[in-house]
Glycerol-3-phosphate dehydrogenase (Advenella mandrilli), 512 residues
Amino acid sequence: MNTTAAQCIDNVDVLIIGGGINGTGIARDAAGRGLKVLLCEKQDLAGATSSASSKLIHGGLRYLEQYEFRLVREALAEREVLLHNAPHIVHPMRFVLPHNKNLRPAWMIRLGLFLYDHLAKRSKNLPGSQQIPLANTSAYALPLKDSIKKGFIYSDCNVDDSRLVILNAIDAQTRGAQILPRCECIGLKTQNNTWLATLRHQDGTTRIVQAKILVNAAGPWVDNIQNLAAQHGSNATGKRKLRLVKGSHLVTPRLYEGTHAYILQNKDKRIVFVTPYRNDFSMIGTTDIDFHGDPANVAISAEETDYLLQSVNAYFKQAIRHEDIVSTWSGVRPLYDDAHGNASTTTRDYVFDVSGGTGSSPPLLSVFGGKITTYRKLAEHALEKLAPFTGKPQPWTHAAPLPGADLPNADINLFISQLQKNFPWLPKSTASRYACAYGTLALLFLAEKNSIESLGQHFGHDLYETEVKWLQAHEWANCAEDILWRRTRLGLYFTPEQTLALQKWLKKHTIR
């Protein structure tokens, strides 16, 4: 569609490009400090890497081998912060590591787990690590081959990654930020020590944003934004510091009973996770390979698929085959290029590139790397970097719950029981899904509902009109893909016919 004349001009303190976890985290932090913030994202929020992660909040046990002690310490501390601030979407999980003496000796694993338990303050919520027997009678041993006799167990957490993004965006908007998904930055220039950005909405209309500070949180496209800025008067270098690394996952029917996960060692020194996913499935991942294509068109390769299947089949009794795969996804990690030869050993730490802020050149902060676990700390550090230009140095997010997190006693199971008591007609599976996706926000769209029929049209698999309207009005969802694959994760269950019916309803009930 042709671009029309600019329809409005916004004057803001901070313009953020990128609606993934880093962009929304920075928007939330900045808005909470009283800054006027606008965030634009050319696709849906969490439309790329931030919805294609391993869905873990973890310290990164394997990063200890790469001596990334600062990163692991910070990630372990943030694990506790997120458990407290988002108990509805962040849940404890035990990880079983079967021992293979040909890969890493037991003493090395014990040392690593000791460090993992003690690098940060000991968790009150998560049990420590220990060595365990993997005899045939053990529930942890049941899916594993009989040749595996011992292993280790430790704690981390899982998370719904795309919902973490959405909740940060909701909180940022509540604190005054403008959140504009499906709005692409197509032009950047500097004028009178400010940024002038041209943004194009999905319908082709444009707007001009004048910003004192530009934050480039574009993920795999961070270089594109740096280069766009460099072409139009900025002193941003545009120099490539980015290494794109693809990580892929596959989903199969559930491979074992229980809420625990497995962490499997491989001959190439990498590890693969097998985790319970959406009650009926297992998620397997991830891979680490350099990526040189268009990040908008990324998919698992045949080699990655074989690698993941072989990794699981080396440990599990019941072999999984290509025909067992029900879904796959891939994400491109925008890592800082630290010149390591191996993609799997490239640092996952975050790095800021700050330019401008002197003379007539306004500040530009570009974000490289980072993990979903440390997004809040990344945002805090980004605002520290920008403090000389904002005068807003005080951090505040450490003890600030995300929307929906005010559960009774911070107990998700207690809240599920409360939902069932208050809405006895609500099936337990539905109450559980609402609680784990929305927390107490679910009470807002369930208000005044008195029967399953009062939820409106049923699209299938637990999805009703009331929830869809909430997602449209409050979570920026405008198509079936937004709802099924990033807001609710029900896409694994929906048939093509059901998806089409939902899409037709959305087109008929578009919110302007």
About this structure: The chain has three domains: 6-49+163-241+348-399, 69-158+243-339, 408-508. DSSP finds 13 helices and 20 strands in the chain. The chain has a mean pLDDT of 93.
